[in-house]
Amino acid sequence: MIDLHTHTTCSDGTETPRQLINNALIHDLSVIAVTDHDSIDGWEEATSALRGDLSIVLGAEISCLTSDGVSVHMLGLLFDGTDPNMKRMLDQTRDDRIPRMVKMIALLNEAGIEVSMEDVEAVKPSGATLGRPHLADALVAKKFIASRDEAFKGLLNNDSQFYVSHMAPTPEVAIAQIRASGGVAVIAHPFASHRGEVLHSSSFQSLLQAGLNGIEVDHRDHSSSERATLRAIAEELNLVVTGSSDYHGTGKLNLLGENSTDPRQWERLESMANERRVVKL
């Protein structure tokens, strides 16, 4: 089983990289990608925990904004983590999350929802990439909501009055940098409408021109009709089709390996990187 999209405590997951690898072994996965938000900090621990027949794909989920303000997530896999331009892009995107969080907290406070940056820091694992899930955890701790899932369906949804976008590369810039760093680019859950505004089908042409390699089709947040549409787009544009869990531990309902990538699609995707960077014993 091949799962190409997971998160750890280095971003907004609830399991350490070591715990994630242990869980992957328990679930008999053959390949797992570690793709924390705008961060590669979990790579070393995940690699050190590797054993058995499991293979690790090192990557990151990069936060992007289209020119008209639509939030897009781009999975960068198998890129060179020492590439200075890639590191700079990840650092800049991650650093902008702090002023963004301050603005969102201020909006919530104005509406009478008393939460502070201190509350958010109290629930965020040390060193984790700051994000809305940590704000959701703070709201849960203060009993304003019951769960992260409730937060993302309401208060912290992309269309909410409390949502604040942040400085981020366009999807095209992110794709170009992933490819320049030797990796492959797969757009994550592009039709996940319950998160807010989504990409239009016509957007994929510019992503293809930028070097897009694949589309995450099989994902919990895609309906059967959305999956069919995305599969047709992938076939038309000759893009790789992936399936992933987007696992966050107990932070989301998503189960490890609940969606997976066909081995033939994965073989094709891996061959598109400029080097064989899959980590295995």
UniProtKB/TrEMBL annotation:
Residues in the signal sequence: none
Domain Polymerase/histidinol phosphatase N-terminal, first and last residues per copy: 2-66
Pfam family, one: PHP
Example GO molecular function: 5'-3' RNA exonuclease activity
SMART domains listed in its UniProt record: POLIIIAc
Entry-linked InterPro entries: PHP_dom, PHP_domain, Pol/His_phosphatase_N, Pol/histidinol_Pase-like
Protein name in the entry: Unannotated protein
